[in-house]
Automatic annotation (TrEMBL):
Naturally occurring in which organism (per UniProt): Cytobacillus pseudoceanisediminis
InterPro entries noted in UniProt: ARM-type_fold (IPR016024), DNA_alkylation (IPR014825)
Name of this chain's protein: DNA alkylation repair protein
PANTHER family: DNA ALKYLATION REPAIR PROTEIN (PTHR41291)
Length: 235
């Protein structure tokens, strides 16, 4: 299946309501408005195809860029490739749910995410923290350094309220994910979440929203989800 065929198939799945929803979250033209679940039949036909993924991502079309993440081969991508994808990730649904997700299936995930976290750029930092969320929610606890993650929790506690808006959200989600999915630091994550308290997310022309990691961790504990790991990172 070539680029033109995939673009035609994606366009045929477009919904105006979905398009409006994506735009309200920060997407801009070009885009079709395709529900992510509707992409699965096309993805099953293609499976992994890195050259096609690169062509799709380069279109700048949000739906094509998202689909590129689904069919990408993370192990075929270098650090420079991930950096290039992040350069073109113009809002959080690309940085956190396409690039970070794809990176989370690569062996170089932690090394690249560490650099993004220290970059000082809002979406790179957001993508870096989000990548750790995807990793922690999928990989065995033994693959992580407890000391390193403990320091990352301290960093969140010290800096989250002064961080850029999208980075705040990803950092808050990191605390939540450690608290739920990484058993060695569950107690520290709970303490960190309580110390942070509500995290205000300011939004243009809308009321602020507040994130509550402590409450959300407790909800998962009450549901018996402590230690939860998802089978796959990508759908």
């Amino acid at each position: 299946m070539d680029l033109q065929t995939v673009m035609q198939e994606l366009e045929a799945l477009s919904k105006e309501r979905t398009k409006k929803m994506y735009i309200s979250n920060g997407a801009h033209e070009p885009l079709f408005g395709v529900a992510t679940g509707a992409m699965k039949p096309i993805a099953k036909k293609i499976k992994r195809n890195q050259p096609l993924a690169e062509e799709l991502y380069a279109t700048g079309n949000y739906d094509a860029m998202y689909f590129a993440g689904i069919i990408a081969d993370p192990e075929a991508m270098t650090e420079a490739d991930f950096d290039r994808w992040m350069d073109d990730a113009y809002f959080y649904m690309l940085s956190d749910y396409v690039v970070a997700v794809t990176l989370a299936e690569a062996d170089i995930a932690q090394a690249v995410a560490d650099k993004w976290i220290e970059s000082g750029e809002e979406l790179r930092m957001s993508g870096g923290w989000s990548c750790y969320c995807w990793l922690l929610g999928n990989r065995p606890d033994a693959e992580f350094s407890e000391e390193k993650l403990a320091k990352m929790l301290d960093k969140v506690k010290d800096t989250i309220h002064d961080s850029p808006e999208r980075t705040k959200s990803a950092m808050n989600n990191f605390v939540y994910t450690v608290g739920v999915s990484y058993l060695p630091l569950h107690e520290k994550a709970v303490e960190t979440a309580k110390a942070i308290g509500p995290v205000e997310m300011k939004r243009d022309k809308k009321k602020s929203s507040f994130l509550h990691a402590s409450e959300n961790i407790q909800k998962e504990v009450d549901r018996g989800k402590l230690g939860f790991k998802r089978k796959y990172v990508r759908c």
